Amino acid sequence: MSENTQRLVPTPGQTIGPFYGYALPYENGENLVDRSHPGSVRLHGTVYDGHGVPVPDSMLEIWQADENGKVSQETGSLIRDGYTFTGFGRVAVDNEGQYTFTTVNPGPTEAGKAPFICLTVFARGLLNRLFTRIYLPEDTEALANDPLLSGLSEDERATLVATREADGSLRFDVHLQGDGETVFLAYPGLE
Amino acid sequence: MAAENPEDAFEPLTAKGADDAADSQDQLNNEMAQITKQYEESGRTETQPRLDYAPYRSSILRHPTKDPRHTDPETIELYAPAFGERDVHKLESDLTIQDGGEPIGERIRITGRILDGDGRPVRNQLVEIWQANAAGRYIHKRDQHPAPIDPNFTGVGRCLTGDDGSYSFVTIKPGPYPWKNHQNAWRPAHVHFSLFGTDFTQRMITQMYFPGDPLFALDPIYQSIVDPKARERLVADYDHNVSEHEWLLGYKWDIVLSGSNRTWTEDDSNV
């Protein structure tokens, strides 16, 4: 798939396994901004398996631009100072497969582009990580012109666009398999 | 606090019901051999694990049934989060000094380089590891393997890569441990590695193994990488030049992430 003349073969991934809980999640990992931040938004949802049962041992990471569409290259995601927006978050789902991030609505990185949040999914039982995108629902024209979304069926597209709830939060569920299976992504350079 | 919730969430290692862990290793071996045979006959070359690999029972309901959608990365996907010394203390790369006393086990160093698919070193980037102790036990509430906890070993480490993409950890060689996939199932000794690249699309988590482990052929997680050459990329080399006189044994393991999709300047790619 790659147009690169790739010289080295990538190392294979493996499952995160069951015992990451004491190693990877960290204090304030899920809080890209403080809840008191004026533009703070709750991004939340549930991870489901192929029977529609919540997956209690999954870890999610997000990576996104700030409200102005700027990509942060600031350090400090692991030890947050409460002021610097680093764009990265990590959360372990709870016993009911639910997660919450506190973040901001990303702006478009280029004018007219549909803003989205990158999401990476890890879980016990999932042999390699999965990539997907969480699109904001508001800019319908940009969504209609998005190169990825415009190539999807209505049902597939619906799995990638978050729902804006009455309280302003974004809801995005992940379905690893089965009804409403989330569209996961492959990028050039990795099969 | 986020770390606490999932610890309560894992299925207990005790059997859940009549069918749980009921299959024999022979049954597993037959299933794995069939998949190997089909792979060999296909003439294809795979480099990553199968997501749909039924011998790893927990994967059955947790793998997507549709192929991933190929897409070109957008701006945000061409960058990765930045980590620095603000995030990671230098001493976090030595897992043998974290809790006061000396942990029990075989002291080792694991070192190597992290490169992208074009051979560029991944610089100043975060590497996280976690592992069982020498007895095969994790510091984790739900690890019920009746092996001793080592009060002087958490099994968690972090470091930042150097300008040449190098990383180095001093730790204890982990032990193999039993799990509930099937009857008498044992994981080969391994260290979990969490890696970032220069692009978010290079994000990966994997496991490093030790050479010559007799459990390789029996382990459905290792065998989920159906290509023998590909799975050998997860096995470190013993390297006597890394070993230190009367102190520790050395292992070398280089990691290749997928190709970066950024446009690199000559200066950037000056390896």
TrEMBL record, chain A:
InterPro entries assigned: Intradiol_dOase_C, Intradiol_dOase_core, Intradiol_RC_Dioxygenase, Protocat_dOase_a
MF terms (GO), sorted A to Z: protocatechuate 3,4-dioxygenase activity
Oxidoreductase in keyword set: yes
Chain ranges of the Intradiol ring-cleavage dioxygenases domain: 17-151
Membrane spanning residue stretches: none
Enzyme class: oxidoreductase
Known EC number: 1.13.11.3
Keywords on record: Dioxygenase, Oxidoreductase
PANTHER family per UniProt: DIOXYGENASE, PUTATIVE (AFU_ORTHOLOGUE AFUA_2G02910)-RELATED (PTHR33711), PROTOCATECHUATE 3,4-DIOXYGENASE ALPHA CHAIN (PTHR33711:SF9)
NCBIfam families reported for this sequence: protocat_alph
Membership in a protein family: Belongs to the intradiol ring-cleavage dioxygenase family.
The protein, known as: Protocatechuate 3,4-dioxygenase subunit alpha
Recorded name of the encoding gene: pcaG
UniProtKB/TrEMBL annotation, chain B:
Residue span of region Disordered: 1-56
Enzyme class: oxidoreductase
This protein's record includes keyword Transmembrane: no
Compositional bias annotation for Basic and acidic residues: 38-49
A GO term for molecular function: protocatechuate 3,4-dioxygenase activity
Composition bias, Polar residues: 24-37
Entry keyword Ubl conjugation: no
InterPro entries, per database record: Intradiol_dOase_C, Intradiol_dOase_core, Intradiol_RC_Dioxygenase, PCDO_beta_N, Protocat_dOase_b
Acidic residues bias locations: 1-10
Keywords attached to this entry: Dioxygenase, Oxidoreductase
A Pfam family this chain is assigned to: Dioxygenase_C
Intradiol ring-cleavage dioxygenases domain residues: 110-138
Family statement drawn from the similarity comment of this UniProt entry: Belongs to the intradiol ring-cleavage dioxygenase family.
Name by which UniProt lists this protein: Protocatechuate 3,4-dioxygenase subunit beta
Protein species of origin: Kocuria carniphila
Organism phylogeny: Bacteria, Bacillati, Actinomycetota, Actinomycetes, Micrococcales
